[in-house]
Specification:
heterodimer; A: 191 residues; Four Helix Bundle (Hemerythrin (Met), subunit A); 8 helices; B: 126 residues; elongated; transmembrane (chain B); NAD (chain B); NADH-quinone oxidoreductase subunit K (chain B); quinone (chain B); translocase (chain B)
């Protein structure tokens, strides 16, 4: 499957330039993700999420998946984070430090996360210690390649996905519409 | 590039997201952590796709589908969170105990107590 595997896998002690860049961006991404889940300022969590998702876009670029990288920037950084910020503002999230941002079971959560991390990293490193990705040659995720495979081999899932997006849009509108006939006076009374 | 680098990064990102889902109290922060976990899956898909040199590019196609489904998920999730906030006055998932099964179920004042307190607290912070 992997032609380089049979010959000789390069060691970890002499990393290539791409590997060093991947490692540095990966550290930044991981640190931003950790700040996202631990900070007590809710808006800062959304802004650190931008750093984490942008770092992942750079990782996609380093893995020669250009189209995925730009889709990541457009959809995640451009729209998902904006939606999350809107959600924070619409639920009147406190600006500044909120001491009850973390639940009471954070010790148990930390234990579960550390156990999962140890198990996953152990298994992954043990399995793919000698596997080498050959990044030479033409970019494998160029826009032309992605468009051809998407509209030649994956047309049916693509169209099904568009139906799912439409259903999600309609569902979100239905959920967020006020039901005037039943709860109108109750809403007025609560305000 | 070693496949171990993206695989380990994806595993660690997934675990960071797992911690966030379990430890956060605000529903929108839980949604952010879910996004982190989905992104870890995407990184794995892209890395294995590039490694295997798949002619159908299954990993990248699945990554695009995952991103679209994540966008749908965040839309629906935010709509649900906003509706819950409008009805209950809080987006704190520890306080959403409407469907909980308390041991002494014939005491109706116990579940109602924290809810009204939460509503007042949300009003006070707003």
């Amino acid at each position: 499957m992997n032609p380089v595997l049979a010959a000789e896998a390069p060691g970890f002690l002499s990393p290539t330039g791409v590997e060093i860049a991947f490692l540095l961006v990966g550290l930044v991404t991981l640190a931003a993700a950790a700040v996202t889940v631990t900070t007590k300022q809710l808006v800062h969590a959304a802004l650190w999420l931008v750093v984490a998702l942008g770092g992942l876009a750079v990782e996609y670029l380093l893995l020669t998946a250009e189209f995925i990288a730009w889709v990541q920037v457009l959809i995640y950084v451009g729209s998902v984070v904006v939606l999350l910020l809107f959600g924070l503002m619409l639920t009147k999230a406190p600006i500044g430090r909120s001491p009850d941002a973390d639940s009471g079971n954070r010790v148990a959560a930390l234990a579960v996360a550390l156990a999962a991390a140890a198990a996953l990293v152990w298994v992954v490193v043990d399995a793919f210690r000698t596997t080498w990705i050959d990044l030479d040659g033409p970019a494998q995720g160029a826009t032309r390649v992605s468009g051809e495979i998407l509209f030649r081999h994956w047309v049916l899932p693509f169209e099904a996905l568009s139906v799912l997006l439409l259903a999600a849009l309609v569902g979100a509108i239905v959920l967020s519409r006020r039901d005037r006939t039943e709860s109108g006076p109750a809403q007025e009374g609560k305000r | 590039m070693h496949l171990a680098y993206p695989a380990v990064l994806a595993a660690l990102l997934f675990c960071v997201g797992l911690y966030g889902v379990l430890a956060r109290r605000n529903a929108i922060l839980v949604l952010m952590s879910v996004e982190l976990m989905l992104n870890a899956v995407n990184l794995n898909l892209v890395a294995f796709d590039v490694w295997l040199r798949d002619t159908l590019h299954t990993g990248q196609a699945l990554t695009l589908f995952t991103i679209a489904i994540a966008a749908a998920e965040i839309g629906i999730g935010l709509a649900i969170v906003l509706m819950v906030y409008r009805n209950g006055g809080t987006s704190d998932i520890d306080k959403l105990r409407d469907t909980t099964e308390v041991p002494g179920a014939d005491d109706p004042t116990e579940p109602a107590g924290p809810d009204t307190a939460a509503g007042e607290k949300a009003e006070a912070t707003a």
